[in-house]
Amino acid sequence: MLKEISKDNPAVLADYLQSRAQEISADILLKVTEILNDVRTNQDEACKKYTKQFDHQDIETFKVSPEELDAAIQQCDPAFCDAMRQAKKNIEYFHRAQVRQSYILQKEKGIYLGQRVLPLDSVGIYVPGGRAQYPSSVLMNAIPAHVAGVKRIVMVTPPDENGSIHPNIAFAAQLAGVTEIYKIGGAQAIAALAYGTQQIPAVDKIVGPGNIFVAAAKKLVYGKVDIDMIAGPSEILVVADEKANPRHAAADLLSQAEHDPMASAILLTTSRTVLDAVNDELKKQSVKLPKREIVEQSLANYGKAIVCDSIEECIHFANEIAPEHLELMIEDPMKYLGQVRHAGSVFMGYYTCESIGDYFGGTNHVLPTSGTARFSSALGVDSFIKTSCFLHYTEEALQAYGPQIMTMAKEEHLDAHANAVKVRMENE
Prior knowledge:
alpha/beta; Rossmann fold; 5-stranded parallel beta sheet; NAD binding; Histidinol dehydrogenase; histidinol dehydrogenase activity; Histidinol_DH_CS
């Protein structure tokens, strides 16, 4: 099930990594640009038109009323609600530790300078519709924003076949502190959040997963607003030593393979016996899965394995791949954590399956994909803040350091900059 790659042929690994790179086609970008321009110009009328065209719903009022929200929540399974409440506590507990403080530095001659940490004013969260519902993503996107201090947290989600909001999504939104909900999806929802309409005021940042049209829309509106990332297919990389349970490793690889035929599942192990046993388990377990066809496509295309000489070598290859999810199914994983340079999130030990992080553990499941963990981070409190610097110089400080400032400005041939210092020194 997993195709073995020789560790001595790095070109094969490079080709594999490149094969998963997803570029948004020019045709899709053109179609999405048309939708964005239409919504920017015609606002709610364009949103209604596309909601009818793509979601087959006549929506006159996009905003979900408190009564509609309460009615949807009443349909939720109490056990699901209890699990979500505990997940919320865990997610808040983790993210509160990320909160940064403003600071001020005092220097000589009355100089002081510092930095303010400020929450964004407003954030829009895109929540996909269709057959798959991901209330956990509502928690993962909204809770860090709430912890950061964002006052206006907006959620957009496509209406279902009855023109309503899904009950589980409604409950998640209320639980996570979402302040406004609008029944609208697709590129038109991204346009509404970016440019604003009569019914949907614009936001400062857009986060959340979506299909290729949503991804294209986020890419195109970046600059008007901020975005979280352009997410690619899901990825898991399992590092397993000779003591790892092959049944567990196979189950974890399948947990990501079921997302998408483009999803990637990689095993790096120090034991050929473990690799053979994992492949046997993949065959046994995959036949029982409802999404067997997707799983088999994913593993056939992007299921890979490398047998390494040591855990250190496994981690070396893991750093080359920079996976979204990295599992260290090894003895004493903390011993090796410092060697991990590039991973969206790391799951430590034999019993910490990636699914725990997806739903319940507290760490965020919105993670960099497609190798971008080399330079980007998981969604968190920092995703919803901005920083602003401040600086104060006294008369004494300006007299002391003005000549040096003017020297630097003149070397760059910016005489007006130098003059702004000079006139103050002369006046005094």
